[in-house]
Amino acid sequence: MRIPQAMLEELIIRTLCDTLPLKPLDGLFLFGQTEDNQSATFESAQRLFQGNRISKVLCLGTGPLSGYPGFEVWKRQLDQLGIGEGILEAVPPVPADTQLLHTRIEAESMVQHAKKRGYKSLVVTAAPFQQPRAFMTAVTMALQVYPELCLYSLPGKPLPWQEEVTHSQGEVQDTRAGLIAGELERIKTYHAKADLASVDEVLDYLNRRDKGKL
Length: 214
What we know:
This protein is of the alpha/beta class. The protein has one domain (5-210): Rossmann fold, CATH 3.40.50. It has helices spanning 5-16, 38-50, 71-79, 103-117, 131-145, 168-171, 176-192, 199-210; strands at residues 27-30, 57-60, 88-91, 121-125, 150-153, 164-167, 172-175. The protein has a 5-stranded parallel β-sheet, sandwiched between helices. The chain has a two-stranded antiparallel ribbon with strand order 6-7. The longest helix is centred in the last third of the chain and has 17 residues, at 176-192.
């Protein structure tokens, strides 16, 4: 099924410019990033935590995997930013014995963890070029597993667009600007395979969330 261009453009803009509620949220989930892009998401987590907008920061509780440096490495680095013991929370991967990480595994792990812990609202953060697909994937899993979970989108801090970086399970190399096309292509491919909720479904989720109807 072909994605209506206007609806996709609306969704991209809304994921990059989402509005967060004034009341504190249960936490912020950091999608795994390579070392080249992790500082973008760290800055967003630090800003929300210091502003008393979140009480927890969550990330995958694995070792180094698929370009993600691993929980223990991020724990040390986030501790230096004031996100320390009692604030940073490890999310068990689903499946527990996974030998790779990708956006869908991370999103499912996050939603299962949120449901188990009884979290009602989470912000999800990825590098800006990845944010629309990451948020779509998070909503896809929420609709399947925990539809009343309120998810909000906050992209990481923009980093130099013409800098050459490694991304996508530590294998894809390009400028950050060059990675955008690949992300859009993945959205279309996964949408066609029904691995992503439709753009219409994600927009409906956002509208219902904003009206308090989840």
